[in-house]
Amino acid sequence: MSTQPRAPLAQRGHVMLVASTGGHLAQLLVLRPWWEHLRRTWVTFDKADARSTLDGEEVVHAFHPTTRNAANALRNLRLAHAVLRARQPDLVVSTGAGVALPFFAVARSLGIPTVYLEVYDRVDSATVTGRLCRPLASAFCVQWPDQLRWYGGAEVVGRLL
Hints:
The chain is of the alpha/beta class. It has a single domain (about 10-155), classed as Rossmann fold (3-Layer(aba) Sandwich). The protein has 7 helices and 7 strands; from the N terminus they run αβααβαβαβαβαββ. Helix 7 links the parallel strand 5 (about 115) and strand 6 (about 140). The longest helix has 18 residues, at about 70-85. The chain is globular.
């Protein structure tokens, strides 16, 4: 890994967007004005909503289910190693869920900055993925001030959906 300082993302321009399908993916899609001018690679599941929504995008399919499935967790860890080394993104962004953890762990080991955005519909407790990714995240964002109870010091960015 180079010790040279990184240029601003707008000059480098490759972001990896990692999310489960459904609402997690929908929240990343709302950020289109931010990522649409960047080179991007999506990591999500091979499901109908992702296929239709991400038609024409560069997509890597992760293994699912991720909840309580050790075999797929290991598969996604190997996938994260291969994809992050091959694509060499400048930033990894995720809204969860389980697919985020292996990508954050590998990104951290490679010195790639990460941003985790906690989902908008979880204000009564922290998510498992949020708790696991928080120590690995370069930046941690929440959508509601109430979420600061679970993630003190996070950045409140406001509601996306």
